[in-house]
Design a protein that fits this description.
Length: about 280
Amino acid sequence: MSEELHDHDRGLSFDLPTLQRRKMIRLLAGVGLVPLVGCSSDDSDNSASSSSSSAGSSSSAASSGSAECETIPGETAGPYPGDGSNGVNVLKESGVVRKDITSSFGSASGKAEGVPLTVTLTVVDAASGCGTPKEGAAVYLWHCDRDGNYSLYSEGVTEENYLRGVQETDAKGQVTFTSIFPACYTGRWPHIHFEVYGSLEDATNATSITATSQLAFAKDVCDTVYASDGYDRSVQNMSQLSLETDGIFSDGYDQQLATTKGSVEKGYTATLTVPV
């Protein structure tokens, strides 16, 4: 991968302001200056064909409508959001509202290759204790391809818009995207970006973002995927990282670690509850 691709999220120099804000909020909460409610769970990784138990616990707590519920941690959208905040705005293009994001739309015709991945996010109302689905909200989801490139931005794929899409939440507060497993590129743990909007109209007008965060994957699942064809670059990059040292997830990732099941042959499913 070229050096140009090594700063996809620009590491700590780009993300530090967001990290500092989150850490300050946690610090103040610790001394009682900022009220925080929490749906916590233990962090652990199991087999490659199953999810981390921490993510499962977090999702279960959210689904049961517990009395306390912490909103999804806010994260940087990174330098390649495609939402108009850093150059190109894909959200206003016809065709962005879709379930299958593996291929480009409009005048572009590229397709992202890789291990199949289906991502389901369940958006819930944090004020209700995570018990009330946010029907009629919208989610914009995007991530890098198998080579660590971001469509619209990275060299060679600036004319493509694959691995980006918007969905409106259903009665269960859910959106589902058909995609491929993202790479691990230099300096960042494997992740998926997403923004939550109050409505589909807000999303397609790129206004009034409710929440911006990132989804993380368990190490055992990543290791299994990256041992398959096409992910060679990710193996070396993963060996230099951990969730605890990643510039985004190092201050806590229990709410962002997806429940991931499946196999390389049949594809994977990743699910995450998103309290807003």
